[in-house]
Amino acid sequence: MKIIICDDNEEEIVRSKRVILDQKLAEEKDVTTCQPEELLKQIEGQTLECDLFIMDIEFDGRDYNGITLSTAINELQPESQIIYLTNILEFAPEVYETKHCYFVLKANMDLMLPRAVRKAEVLIQKRKKNAVLEIFNQGSRVIISQNEIFYIERVQRKLQIHTKEKEYSYYSSLRKLQGQLEEVFVRCHEAYIVNLDYVKVVEKEQIRMENSDVIPIGVSYEKELRKRYLNYWAEQV
After folding, report:
1. CA-CA distance, 213 to 210, in Å (whole number)?
2. Is the predicted pLDDT of residue 236 greater than 70, yes or no?
3. 62-72: per-residue pLDDT in tens?
4. Residue 163 pairs with which residues in a beta bridge?
5. CB-count exposure of residue 34 (10 Å: 0-12, 13-18, 19+)
6. Does the predicted model carry a pTM greater than 0.85?
């Protein structure tokens, strides 16, 4: 489970991260901390890769707050869970305008944050088990189980989804699609996203899939692909 802690107070960031690690709720490599402007930059660049956001609400000296960022996260990555972590109760009514799974007061952090993270983890695991992709194929609404997808290919203005049983084609972009896919999917080329569950081997310039298809590796995507591939296999051990 990938976690991002966003707060404008470094002491609070350290404290909340310590609670998570002390309670063994996540490994340190899976917990990222950031200031609000860093998270805003990721949102604007649509480069988010996270299962759970732990979000402070009030940011001093900014014209936006944690609720603003959470609203954008709901739109960009609706599958992610959000825990609000704040000192101020007056924001409580506003948070219900966003999708979140818990509201924790910092005064109760040691007791309530572990409870909130465990609830989020249950929701995340449930989602991953049942993760689907909804598209419109030839005028019809189609629901595709993500664990059936081998890879996704961009062909001109359309995306082709290659699954165990058949192929689907619809108008969209890989950039837009990435936010809807589970962590096991990785961009390996300007025109391809692959499901690591079905990667047979990563070679020097290409990927061999379990269904014998060969996918090219783009130079600008190679480093991240190999990193994700190694992490994927490390987690299988």
Report:
1. 7
2. no
3. 999 999 999 99
4. 149
5. middle
6. no
